[in-house]
């Protein structure tokens, strides 16, 4: 049977299941400076990992742009048509000056990076199924292709109302969401899609946070055994983040990622990590340190990923 998307292609076994493209970064006439997110963060993480000799350009998977057909798996054509209006994109991206740009520029300089990030997530999802784990350096997005059941573990500081609305009545998807109850978006309707909801207070710190994450990740995986875990590893939980409102230390973030990967390994479930939100310059270094920690502990490994690619769930602990 032909693949459901052209994004699925053979990846050399010499490559890490790490997906990235320089096209992820939104850089045009200073637009990236008008939003608190560091638009160049993904490239900085890659550079840190290169400096540590973990990866090289020819050892990572280059993301491809998702097509309209790929996007129609989860979005309606009506929604995609709306993106031909610059004011709609300005609202979605929270960058008001986009309103004044011709839409051909919006398509090329704003939406193409986002479509490439989505394409990267689709590619990384296939890699995770094949090899047991994968990482995509981008915002969180997920499109269902060839998966029967998935568990989304959303540990970004904000409620994940986008995918919650997307998968509201999709029984293939189990959503666990841990977020600051007092910040945007506060989407009561979308909360109906959350199977395991953990609402945090302002200023939640490491000890309470890590205990809740470990308890509820284990509970979620015991409740339903998915084909894949989609892990939204947002770093906007970091103490001092202007939007997240939590107080997690850099080491707390490293320990959080470790706990999720340990749970995936102990249950023998493939995991896709998406690095997602985080609005401080130092988050790039923290993400890199976390990935290095996962590697040092043997929770991610190129040989591990390729040695049992046909049956990643049976990789021994």
From TrEMBL:
Residues annotated as domain Histone deacetylase: 35-136, 146-291
Gene Ontology molecular function: histone deacetylase activity; hydrolase activity
Transmembrane segments: none
Superkingdom of origin organism: Eukaryota
Keywords from the UniProt entry: Hydrolase
GO cellular component entries: histone deacetylase complex
Protein name: Histone deacetylase domain-containing protein
Organism: Chelydra serpentina
């Amino acid at each position: 049977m032909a693949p459901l998307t052209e994004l699925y292609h053979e990846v050399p076994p010499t490559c890490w299941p790490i997906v990235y493209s320089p096209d992820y970064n939104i850089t045009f006439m200073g637009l990236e400076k008008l939003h608190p997110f560091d638009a160049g963060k993904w490239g900085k993480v890659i550079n840190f990992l290169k400096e540590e000799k973990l990866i090289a350009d020819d050892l990572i998977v280059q993301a491809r742009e998702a097509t309209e057909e790929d996007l129609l798996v989860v979005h309606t054509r009506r929604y995609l048509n709306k993106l031909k209006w610059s004011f709609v994109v300005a609202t979605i991206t929270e960058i008001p000056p986009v309103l004044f740009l011709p839409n051909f520029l919006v398509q090329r300089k704003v939406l193409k990076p986002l479509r490439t990030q989505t394409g990267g997530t689709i590619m990384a999802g296939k890699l995770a199924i094949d090899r047991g784990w994968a990482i995509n350096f981008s915002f969180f997005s997920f499109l269902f292709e060839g998966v029967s059941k998935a568990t989304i573990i959303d540990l970004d500081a904000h409620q994940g109302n986008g995918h919650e609305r997307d998968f509201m009545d999709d029984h293939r998807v189990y959503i666990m969401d841990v977020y600051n109850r007092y910040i945007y978006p506060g989407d009561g309707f979308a909360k109906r899609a959350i199977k395991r909801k953990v609402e945090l207070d302002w200023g939640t710190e490491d000890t309470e946070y890590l205990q809740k994450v470990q308890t509820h990740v284990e509970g979620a995986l015991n409740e339903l055994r998915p084909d894949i875990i989609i892990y939204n590893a947002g770093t906007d939980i970091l103490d001092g983040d202007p939007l997240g409102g939590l107080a997690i230390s850099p080491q707390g973030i490293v320990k959080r990622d470790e706990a999720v990967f340990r749970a995936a390994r102990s249950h023998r479930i493939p995991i896709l990590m998406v690095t997602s939100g985080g609005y401080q310059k130092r988050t790039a270094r923290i993400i890199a340190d976390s990935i290095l920690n996962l590697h040092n502990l043997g929770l991610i490994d190129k040989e591990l990923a390729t040695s049992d690619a046909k049956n990643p769930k049976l990789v021994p602990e």
